[in-house]
Amino acid sequence: MKGLELSRRYYNEYGKPMLESGFPELLPYIAVGLCGSGSECFGYDDEISHDHDFEPGFCIFLPSEETVDRRAAFQLERAYAKLPKEFLGFKRQTVSPVGGSRHGVLRTNEFFREKTGSENGELETDAWLKIPEYALCEATNGEIFYDGKGDVTRIRDCLSKMPDDVRKKRLAGSLIVMAQSGQYNYNRCIKHNETAAAQLAVFEFVKASLGAVFLLNSVYMPYYKWSFRALSSLPVLSSLHDTLEFLMTSENTESLAETKYYIIEDIASSVIAVLQDQNLTDAVCGDLEKHAYSVNDKINDPYIRNLNIFYTV
Length: 313
Prior knowledge:
Elements: H1 3-22, E1 31-34, E2 59-62, H2 70-81, E3 86-87, E4 90-91, E5 104-107, H3 108-116, H4 125-130, H5 133-140, E6 143-147, H6 151-159, H7 164-191, H8 195-216, H9 227-231, H10 241-249, H11 254-277, H12 288-297, H13 302-306
Parallel strand pairs: 2-5
Antiparallel strand pairs: 1-2, 1-6, 3-4
Helix pairs in contact: 3-5, 7-8, 7-11, 7-12, 8-10, 8-11, 10-11
């Protein structure tokens, strides 16, 4: 069973009745759901995931102490702790996972501040440019089962919409790294017979390619270990999954290096085609560097446009 379904069923079976009978006065102010860190919040969990930090549980989001004081929060924590320790064959954790509790009673402002630096979902331009996408992904993933005033949903909605100029700036950075690492440096490393350096160039190219593909889909890229899994489900350019994996897992022998170079160019061509379809570039060539600058030129905000093209890299 997937963790998100387990959480939802555990909440409906035990959490919802506990809240409705024991804390009816808090219902207008709280939100309940499962989001944040952990593969179950993305739907990527499997049997291997059950070996740590996996349990029947959910998050109860509380507003600040001005609205719900410490005493009420403590009582709610005790009630949550008393919920059944086992559900559908899965046992609850006896200790919190490394990095803090992922379930139970959480303050809304603290949760979003930890993930994004903002308590209310409002980010300044520089924050949008610098915050890691996996952090935005963790703030907006999973599912909210109940939201009394809609505050948590509103914050998640704010964070789920990256400003278009920021998306273009990040995309330009990914494209220029793709150009330098893949279209330029990989072949030079091979010619110098520096196969380790060549593979480092491949890794940089693949990482930047993943970044570009997620941005072209307007979807946040999750933590790196889930990026390939997430790539498979994207509507645009998910077909690059196998070729990107081949680049990373194959050697750099003379014959393979030539093959890998042509694969890099094929990937570049696929990305350029989508750039053109989305009217993100005016360049007409196969050089990703020129497309990177063309994307950057389409940024409306002069402050963002004039930042170094590597600013978000």
